[in-house]
Amino acid sequence: MDGIVATLGKLTKEVKPLSVRMEDRQTKNGKAKTNPEMQSKVNTMHTTGSIYRPTLATTHHMPKPSKQMSPYHAPQPKNPMQPHHQSCLIIIMHSTELDQKVLHPRALVTFINNTLTGSEESQHIRVASAHYNQHQNLILMTREDQTGAKLLKYTHTFTHIFRVLEDTLELMTDDQRYKVQIDKVWTGEPGMVHIPEELLEELEYANPILKLVKLITNPKWIHSIEDLKNQDFSSIILDLSTEDDAM
């Protein structure tokens, strides 16, 4: 009996290493060891409903960025010495030159503004500066927000300071203009000279097409009134606002 027990114990020892070697061989062949106890605890789950199938990602268009407002830049003031300045009013003397010592620009500005303020209809107009150009013409500059054309409407309130005949004084704005010279125009009866209004009337009567063009000012003689008294014919200048009218 003892011999049988000994033989069984010997066989048991030999079977155990063989079992270990068989498990190692299964692991090398890609079969994982499974613990029976763990396997019994695994639950099988079944789901119902439609099967989710991934699709291509939908392209979302990003909203276009709104245009950024450009920064505000305050308008630069215009140079008063540039030609065709809207704030400019030119005063031209045809018979004599202005005495700059008596009519000093700074004193003129003060006098003109005081005169304009004294009238209810012109108290909103202001002259900012005055100077003489190379032709000895007086240049008046209004405020930047006003124009020489507006000042022209009220020049009758202060032109008496120049102490000259009205027909020898020319007032004009510094607008873009096109000049046309007409020669051999009759000056008028002996000792008399046609004034600008009479010139315009005679020209429109002889040339009806002149009523279709825009004259900036009335026609004016190229010579002084005193010289014209001794001339039967002379030349006049027309100031037109557009090049087409001048053609």
Molecular structure report:
The protein is an alpha+beta fold. Helix content is 28%, strand content 17%. The chain is built from seven helices and seven strands. It has helices at residues 2-28, 36-39, 105-117, 148-152, 196-206, 225-228, 243-246; strands spanning 88-93, 127-132, 138-142, 169-173, 178-186, 220-221, 233-240. The protein has a four-stranded antiparallel β-sheet. The longest helix is centred in the first third of the chain and has 27 residues, at 2-28. It is elongated. The relative contact order is 0.11. The model has no long low-confidence stretch (mean pLDDT 75).
Structure, briefly:
The protein has 247 residues and is α+β, with helices and mostly antiparallel strands.
Strand order in the largest sheet: 2-3-1-4
Counted by DSSP, the helix tally is: 7
Task: Decide which structural class fits the backbone.
Answer: alpha+beta
> In this structure, how is the largest beta sheet organized?
4 strands, antiparallel
Radius of gyration: 53 Å
How many runs of DSSP E, i.e. beta strands? 7
The whole-number mean of residue pLDDT values reads: 75
Estimated helix fraction: 25-40%
- How many angstroms separate the termini? 149 Å
